[in-house]
């Protein structure tokens, strides 16, 4: 009799919409489920830490094996403007976005990147570089200084074409 009463009572508790059904289900679920650990959810314990620096001084940064590599110091806007020359730039890519085409440049001497968009050249802090105008035509980019000095860049094996 006790068994029958207990099983009937347990069935009433666990019936959906029955007597304390939701609370009993939650209690049963909480008791039967072990808490998850981060390793159970995120299986990237063997991957590189995304917040570790890629380059650093000494014996390597965060186990990357980079020995003696140090990051280039970020120049001030005045130093970058003083040492800026369109002939030092390297065309790294051309992108098509909702706002039109964008050309990405790198100045290896200064360690600074630039972007050409809407015929204006912008530095790494999104400030326009004074007097530099440009145009993107297919895989070719033209930059021009206020002195009418022109530099053509072609995306591909030959990255520069000088048209002085």
What does this structure look like?
This protein is an alpha+beta fold. The chain has 3 domains: 32 residues, no CATH class; 30 residues, no CATH class; 86 residues, no CATH class. Helices cover 21% and strands 29% of the residues. The protein contains 4 helices and 8 strands. It has an 8-stranded antiparallel beta sheet with strand order 1-2-3-4-5-6-7-8, with no helix packed on it. It is elongated and about 100 Å long. The chain starts with a helix and ends with a strand. 13% of the residues are buried.
Strand order of the main beta sheet, please? 1-2-3-4-5-6-7-8
Poorly predicted spans: 57-70
SS field, number of helical segments: 4
Tell me the number of structural domains.
3
**Helical/strand content category:** alpha+beta
**Ends distance:** 104 Å
Radius of gyration: 31 Å
Order of helices and strands: HHHHEEEEEEEE
As a percent range, the share of helical residues equals 10-25%
Write down how many β-strands occur, each being a DSSP E stretch of 2 or more residues. 8
**3D shape:** elongated
Strand content: 25-35%
Main sheet attributes: strand count, strand direction, barrel closure: 8 strands, antiparallel
List the helices and strands and how they pair.
Layout: H1 2-14, H2 21-32, H3 38-41, H4 77-82, E1 90-97, E2 100-107, E3 112-117, E4 120-122, E5 128-137, E6 140-144, E7 150-154, E8 160-162
Summarize the structure.
This protein is of the alpha+beta class and 164 residues long.
């Amino acid at each position: 009799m006790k068994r029958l009463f207990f099983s009937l009572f347990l069935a009433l508790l666990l019936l959906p919409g029955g007597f304390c059904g939701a609370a009993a289900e939650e209690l049963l679920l909480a008791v039967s489920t072990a808490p998850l650990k981060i390793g159970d959810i995120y299986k990237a314990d063997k991957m590189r830490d995304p917040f570790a620096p890629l380059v650093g001084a000494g014996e390597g940064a965060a186990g990357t094996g980079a020995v003696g590599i140090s990051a280039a110091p970020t120049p001030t806007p005045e130093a970058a403007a003083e040492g800026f020359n369109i002939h030092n730039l390297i065309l790294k890519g051309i992108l098509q976005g909702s706002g039109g085409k964008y050309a990405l440049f790198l100045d290896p001497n200064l360690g600074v990147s630039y972007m050409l968009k809407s015929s204006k050249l912008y530095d790494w802090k999104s400030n326009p570089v004074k007097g530099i105008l440009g145009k993107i035509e297919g895989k070719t980019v033209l930059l021009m200084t206020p002195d009418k000095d022109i530099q053509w860049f072609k995306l591909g094996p030959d990255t520069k074409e000088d048209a002085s």
